[in-house]
Amino acid sequence: MKVILAKKAGFCFGVQRAIDMVYDEANEPNKNIYTYGPIIHNEEVVSDLESKGVKAINFDEGELKGLNDCTVVIRSHGVAKNIYDDLERKNVNVVDATCPFVKKIHEIVQKESEDGKTIIIVGSEYHPEVQGIKGWVKGDAFIVDEEADARGLDIDKETPVCIVSQTTYNPQKFAKLVEIIREKGYDSNVVNTICNATNERQTEAKEIAKKVDAMIVIGGKNSSNTQKLYEICKNECENTYYIQTAKDLDFDEVRKYDKIGITAGASTPKNIIEEVHTECQR
Ligand code: F3S
């Protein structure tokens, strides 16, 4: 029996990096560590970190005030500039785990807005990454998520605009929204800041699913990127299983196949993937 484990299964580079940075901090003795919001949407990882004394806090002004003599880790989504300023004023040790691809967007919008451009962010308004990007813009930023938002933009035509995207945005939707904005006649500089991690994970999963007799997709039930991976694999391979952990799978049934593929959604920890991989090979 052959088992193919997707290289891009699970955490993307930016999330893995952020998690490694938190664990590095947690391994230092006597440190008071907070993460600015949960480091990842995975309860197992968050509670493991809690057991090591790392607290995930959604800081509001009040909570920020109470902080001193501690380390705050900024997660891969990044945060607005004023949050850094607040933390700096408090003399808190900041560990910045913002994904470098997100940091790059902060730099772009900061520079372009300082140069007098109006910034348009294509993304979901309440997503923390978008909130963070918005917080690096000098002046106003417009957030566009639906075609109606793009059509309704009312920016002075004399002002050049710079369009960036949330890293996890759908590329087709981004292209469509950019087209609508351009048709309105703005002098626009479009910087496609969509990250390839999701696309690469999906493309690899599809290739593997084509070649195997059974495909296992691991990830949270409510994880939309895992659901998408499942759909892609199911289209290529009828025997596709969607599981959250190794406990959900009847391995005796799966082992009867000659070739098995394994992939996992963006918030699935390595140990869960490895457990499934090992069980398949038993
Ligand atoms: Fe991950 Fe960074 Fe891309 S967090 S999805 S590698 S932008």
Could you describe the 3D structure shown?
The chain is an alpha/beta fold and 282 residues long. It is built from twelve helices and twelve strands. Helix 5 packs parallel to helix 6 and helix 9 runs parallel beside helix 10. The radius of gyration is 21 Å and the shape is flat. The N and C termini lie close together (10 Å). Bound molecules: FE3-S4 cluster. Residues 12-15, 76, 99, 101-102, 167-168, 195, 197 line the site of FE3-S4 cluster (F3S). The site of FE3-S4 cluster has 12 residues, from helix 1 and helix 5.
TL;DR of this structure?
The chain is 43% helix and 18% strand. By secondary structure, the protein is α/β, with parallel strands linked by helices.
Give the helix/strand layout.
Blueprint: E1 2-5, H1 13-26, E2 33-36, H2 43-51, E3 54-57, H3 61-65, E4 71-74, H4 81-89, E5 93-96, H5 100-114, E6 118-122, H6 128-134, E7 141-144, H7 147-151, E8 161-165, H8 171-183, E9 188-190, H9 197-211, E10 214-218, H10 224-236, E11 240-243, H11 251-254, E12 259-264, H12 270-281
Bound molecules: FE3-S4 cluster.
FE3-S4 cluster (F3S) binds next to helix 1 and helix 5.
